[in-house]
Specification:
By secondary structure, this protein is mainly beta. Helix content is 12%, strand content 32%. The chain has six helices and 26 strands. The protein has helices spanning 35-55, 58-70, 80-89, 98-108, 171-176, 306-309, and strands spanning 77-79, 120-123, 139-141, 150-151, 153-156, 162-164, 169-170, 180-184, 241-249, 266-272, 277-282, 295-304, 312-319, 325-333, 339-347, 351-359, 367-369, 374-380, 396-399, 426-427, 439-457, 466-472, 477-483, 490-509, 519-520, 522-526. It has a six-stranded mixed sheet with strand order 1-2-8-3-5-6. Strands 19, 21, 22, 23, 24 and 26 form a six-stranded antiparallel sheet that branches. Helix 1 runs antiparallel to helix 4 and helix 2 packs across helix 3 (80-89).
Length: 528
């Protein structure tokens, strides 16, 4: 696992004594942990004996477990600074005893590691799953190698000396035994005050600016459609539709360290094609053993206005481990060419969760894969509705002319009845038929909609034979499809997506036995 901003390079140097000889390739060197991890591990080792000595006291053990049960930051851990403060406030310890002073001194050693203050803690895996407290505490030190799957356990013997236990501390062991893991708290600090902040409305942010200051805190507004989101069933996005990150998972639960790291703290940064950060979201913590399962999140990303945000968005993932604040430039390749780039803030020990681009044109049924992280998107509404909405239902209808009793409003009354008569259809007034004065009926949605399909229902015995489908482009009516020689009562016409407020059926010929009359019983318009 490469930490963000840390390049791991293995080199091989040939020995001069064997120059020219063929030799088997040496195994690749395992990269050493970054220096900050080595320093943390060294000081955790120094904390081990004082911590075990403190845990030998029954009241201190009870206090630690009480603090762990509070899950102050969503995990089963307790800061040693909190333990020290509450133990002294409760008068359950002698604050001047040599063992207690040694504990406080060991904790103070974390106040400055490479210019950053870390908070040492006790982390008890699976404490919230009914692990039975032990009378003698077993402790482990979180390894410097975050990928380690096991480590050594320690206890105090009857003489008060530290001894090594025979069983390795691994995932199987912590499932059934209480273990106090010494580690540092993964304090979140992105260089800005964390607060609840939703995505800005399109057009409200200048290009190149950082739209969101701080981290969305899983608030109700950020997940406003809840766990049972209703996505467009077509899998299509509509302009100005609401974009959600529906679910995510980390297929390899070891991607971001071993079991000694505590719960995973995933962060997502979403950047528009113009370089604007529109989402900076911290997900609720997830246990390592559960992170390979789908996490249903339904996080609101933005209202995707293509004119403002463009055709693509970059998704950058992190797993937060804390450390000094750093800035880095991310560059997300776009399928088909181009990149999305911007500067984001992270922390020195954070793990890079990979990135990928999400295109407006892609189906929301697609599963995205950054390498470490997989996720699905969801789109709701917009100017195309769900894709199954008939935009012409209830629309304002008008016509070039109307035969008495055959109102154009029949074409948008949401009734598909194809029976003959003015109760069911519109028909044009008597006139000269083509080409001097073609007749038409149209539906005005009132707002722009993106449509790709219309369905025309005509009258039994009198189907329209020839007609054009036209849309209003703000200046004139444009023909997007033509039908010739029709004999069906329900005609489905598909065409390239058009954004329009008005759709029109222009009759070029009625049925063979009554060519000068056009009848339309219902006009429907759909996004798909």
């Amino acid at each position: 696992m490469a930490l963000l901003g840390v390049a791991l390079v293995a080199t091989t140097v040939a020995s001069p004594a064997h120059a020219g000889e063929e030799r088997a390739a040496a195994p690749a060197a395992v990269p050493s942990p970054p220096q900050v991890e080595v320093q943390i591990h060294s000081r955790l080792q120094n904390l081990l004996t004082p911590a075990l000595s403190a845990a030998a006291d029954t009241q201190v053990r009870a206090l630690v477990r009480n603090i762990v049960a509070r899950q102050f930051d969503g995990d089963t851990n307790a800061l040693w600074s909190t333990v020290i403060q509450e133990a002294e406030e409760s008068y359950i310890v002698d604050p001047y005893a040599s063992d207690w002073l040694a504990l406080k001194d060991a904790v103070a050693q974390f106040h400055n590691i490479d210019g950053y203050r870390f908070d040492p803690q006790v982390y008890i895996p699976n404490f919230d799953e009914g692990i039975v407290p032990a009378s003698t505490v077993t402790m482990a030190v979180a390894p410097a190698d975050q990928n380690a799957t096991s480590t050594t356990g320690y206890r105090l013997d009857q003489s008060g000396n530290v001894e090594t236990i025979s069983s390795p501390i691994d995932e199987t062991y912590v499932e059934t035994n209480e273990v106090w893991v010494l580690s540092v708290n993964e304090r979140i600090d992105t260089g800005e005050a964390a607060h609840i902040a939703d995505s800005p409305a399109p057009g409200k942010v200048k290009k190149g600016s950082q739209a969101v200051k701080g981290i969305d805190a899983g608030d109700a507004d950020a997940t406003k459609i809840g766990p049972m989101s209703v996505c467009n069933p077509t899998g299509l996005r509509n302009n100005q539709g609401e974009e959600y990150l529906q679910r995510w998972r980390v297929p390899n639960k070891n991607s971001f360290g071993g079991l000694f790291e505590g719960k995973r703290e995933m962060r997502l940064v979403v950047v528009t094609s113009t370089g604007v950060v529109i989402k900076n979201y911290l997900f609720p913590k997830v246990k390592r053993k559960h992170i390979d399962q789908w996490q249903n999140s339904n996080v609101f990303i933005t209202t995707w206005d293509r004119a403002v945000w463009g055709e693509a968005m970059g998704y950058q993932w992190y797993e937060l481990d804390g450390g000094k604040t750093t800035s880095s430039t991310i560059s997300v390749p776009i399928q088909g060419g181009g990149t999305i780039s911007t500067t984001v803030t992270s922390q020195e020990r954070d793990d890079d969760g990979g990135s990928t681009a999400v295109l407006f044109s892609e189906s929301t049924y697609r599963e995205y894969d950054t390498g470490p992280v997989r996720f699905n998107m969801c789109s709701q509404g917009g100017d195309g509705g769900t894709g199954n909405d008939n935009f012409a239902c209830g629309a304002i209808a008008s016509a070039s002319s109307t035969f008495s009793g055959y109102s154009p409003s029949r074409t948008t009354d949401c009734n598909r009845d194809t029976r003959l008569g003015g109760s069911y259809s519109w028909a044009n007034a008597l006139g000269t038929w083509p080409p001097s004065n073609p007749e038409w009926v149209q539906a005005d949605f009132g707002v722009n909609r993106t449509i790709r399909r219309v369905v025309v229902y005509t009258s039994a015995g009198y189907p329209i034979r020839d007609f054009d489908v036209q849309v209003w482009n703000g200046v004139t009516y444009v023909t997007v499809a033509s039908v010739t020689g029709n004999t069906q009562l329900a005609v489905t016409v598909n065409f390239t997506a058009r954004t329009t407020r008005i759709v029109r059926i222009l009759g070029r010929s009625g049925p063979n036995h009554q060519q000068t009359y056009v009848r339309v019983n219902e006009l429907e318009a759909y996004a798909i």
